[in-house]
Amino acid sequence: MKPALGILGGTFDPIHCGHLELAREVKAALELSAVRLIPAGDPPHRVVPVASAGERLAMVELAVADCPGLEADGREIARAGRSYTVLTLAELRAEDPARPLALIVGADAFLGLPTWHRWQEIFDLAHVIVVARPGTALGGVPPPPLDEAWTRRYTADPRALSASPAGSIVRQAITPRPIAASQIRAAFARGDVAAVRGLLPPAVLAYIERNRLYRPGQDAT
Predict the structure, then answer these.
(1) Is the pTM of this model over 0.85?
(2) What is the pLDDT of residues 112-149, one digit of tens each?
(3) Which of 188, 190, 193, 192 shows the shortest CA–CA distance to 213?
(4) What is the pLDDT of residue 1?
């Protein structure tokens, strides 16, 4: 019985303390072996990131450097083409077929899962941990076509994450942290660095300032 490896993907444009606290809290609550943060190179469901793929990976690496149990993984940036989660999970599964994998998604992303590339295969490759997101509640069975998967796979027993390599859905409550990358980018665009202090790891803030990221005109949001 191996503890599951948590997988947390995103654009991380930029990575902020909300991402890190979510990863740490889920890791501790569900006794994951680690949480691997994987920035998307070419995200299929998001607008084009403001920071480059290399810059976003560098920020993730800086952010996790002092966070035991959190890891940066640049495979989606190194891989050509769209950053489809199912391909990433297939690569990780091939590396260690017996290791349980647990994909961490917000409730809003989970409800949008049927729009993901080859989404039904995700359950063959990993467990899915659904966490609350501001403005999105998931208190019962989701609507079709997710209802069938939820009914078959949902469990309130977190031990399911280590009992098999993949296939279960677990819901995990987390501490609300209303931090949004779009708000951080907007603050930088206004030149209001004071507004983001405490929202970003110091090393990430220093990197953004040193490389003059998110300046006026770079982000339309």
Answers:
(1) yes
(2) 999 999 999 999 999 999 998 766 667 678 999 999 99
(3) 188
(4) 77
Whether 7 and 40 have beta carbons less than 8 Å apart is answered as no
Q: Give, in degrees to the nearest 5, the angle at Cα 39 between 114 and 66.
A: 130
Beta partners for residue 131, in sequence order: 106, 172
| Opening angle at CA 147, ends 106 and 102, nearest 5 | 40
Burial (CB count <10 Å: 0-12, 13-18, 19+), residue 24: middle
Strands 5-10 and 127-131: unpaired
Dist. CA 6–CA 38, nearest whole Å: 11
Integer angstrom CA distances of residue 83 from 59, 60, 191: 18, 17, 32
* Residue-range domains of the chain with CATH: 5-177 (3.40.50.620)
Give the separation between CA 149 and CA 8, rounded to whole angstroms: 21
Backbone phi and psi for residue 35, each to the nearest 5 degrees, phi listed first: -125, 125
Cα separation, 180 vs 76, in Å, equals: 22
